[in-house]
Specification:
The chain has about 400 residues and is of the alpha+beta class. It is built from 8 helices and 12 strands. This is Sulfatase-modifying factor protein.
């Protein structure tokens, strides 16, 4: 078994993950992410030993469930999806492809992004730079695929309007003999109001899906994986910035200055105070559209204002920060933002204010009543993580801001 050295800085009992390196020269297996993910939650003392044994059995005899694993009762579903993904494997050639999504009756274009190294964050002299964007530091990224555009309504509504009675946490109230694997993935309950928030004509095809929580976006990735046999998740913050820059060291993917921004982005100056159809602006050099503007995009990481400073000087290979209970991050800026928020390095932390108008108590774990500027896109990494890591990345943000 290979040795792994975990680089981490502990913040109030949680871990800031800066990446890992090999302690020997043995080949890297598909489970490379497993040792990079830690969290602060502990298994509650009130949980019965019997329930814990049942959960251990669901994960398989060789895979005891970590004490801090979220949504432990759903590990059986994750295991089945993991088996499907392992059986599917990776394509023989690393190239862009179109993914068919059967339940939605639609498809998703996935763009191959080569691995490489880049400077993450913004230089001190960049106009409108904020403290949480620095210091710039070198990060290495493994190859991955990322969706060409933000996820549109025609894909997301098949997940959101799933047509089955569900508990508030998204579990089916009654299972049927002919249920498919993706039916067992927790999915949203019906929203109390249309989640286009009055923009456009209903859930109009071609417009990006909006107003979903970080948890909902992550569960969409699980639902998509269960249908396709390919592992999808949200992009890490580092993957997102690397893909956005497409090799550009400037403030934007096309370079510096705001003169060309209208060609690449929908933002406050040109959006007519609403979101616009995906893919209607110029792509960056890697063929990705709407990385700047239209809707801001969820990334996988938790928000830590000084994360870059704590990581600077340490080896950073595919870095990821997960701190349960911490805010999440949106990237890219949106239709309602000024140009400075659309910069490649700009970061924004989530806030409970994005769900301020939700009349429920507790608030919905699926919808953001004040999140009409928020959407997401998906990533398919080359490396398939182990079951517990996969489960954690689909479930750690439930009920958080």
């Amino acid at each position: 078994m290979r040795g792994i050295f975990l680089v981490s800085c502990f913040l109030g009992g949680s871990a800031l993950l800066a990446g890992c390196r090999e302690e020997n020269n043995s080949p890297r297996p598909a489970t490379e992410d497993a040792a990079r993910i830690t969290s602060a939650r502990q298994w509650g003392e009130s949980r019965s030993a019997l329930q814990k044994r049942e959960l251990d059995r669901a994960a398989g005899p060789a895979l005891p469930i970590p004490d801090d694993l979220p949504s432990r009762e759903l590990v059986g579903t994750t295991r089945q999806i993991h088996q499907l993904i392992e059986a599917s494997g990776n394509p023989a050639r690393f190239e862009s492809y179109t993914e068919t999504v059967p339940v939605a009756g639609s498809s998703l274009r996935m763009v191959a992004i080569p691995g490489g190294t880049f400077l993450m964050g913004s230089p001190a002299e960049e106009p409108h730079r904020k403290p949480d964007e620095g210091p710039q530091h070198k990060v290495s990224i493994s190859p991955f695929w990322i969706s060409e555009t933000e996820i549109p309504w025609e894909l997301y509504t098949a997940f959101m309007e799933n047509g089955r009675p569900r508990a508030k946490d998204g579990q089916l109230l009654e299972e049927q003999p002919d249920d498919e694997l993706w039916d067992s993935v927790t999915q949203p309950t019906a929203p109390y109001t249309a989640m286009n928030l009055g923009m456009g004509h209903g859930y109009e095809h071609g417009l990006p899906a909006i107003s979903m929580s970080h948890h909902a976006a992550s569960k969409f990735c699980e639902w998509l994986s269960a249908q396709t046999g390919h592992y999808y998740r949200l992009p890490t913050e580092a993957e997102w910035e690397y893909a956005c820059r497409a090799g550009s060291p400037g403030a934007y993917s096309y370079g510096n200055g705001e003169a060309s921004l209208d060609q690449y982005a929908w933002y406050w100056n040109n959006s007519n105070d609403r979101y616009q159809k995906t893919g209607s602006k110029k792509p960056n050099k890697w063929g990705l559209r709407d990385m700047h503007g239209n809707v801001a995009e969820w990334v996988l990481d938790s928000y830590v204002p000084d994360a870059y400073g704590k990581r600077s000087g340490l080896p950073a290979k595919d870095p990821l920060v997960i701190i349960p209970g911490a805010p999440h991050i949106i990237r890219g800026g949106s239709w309602e933002d000024d140009p400075d928020s659309l910069r490649s390095a700009a970061r924004r932390a989530s806030t409970p204010a994005w769900n301020r108008q939700d009349p429920q108590n507790p608030k919905s774990i699926w919808y953001l009543t004040d999140g009409g500027m928020i959407g997401f896109r998906v990533v398919r990494p080359m490396n398939i993580p182990d079951i517990m890591t996969m489960h954690r990345l689909w479930n750690f943000s439930k009920g958080e801001p």
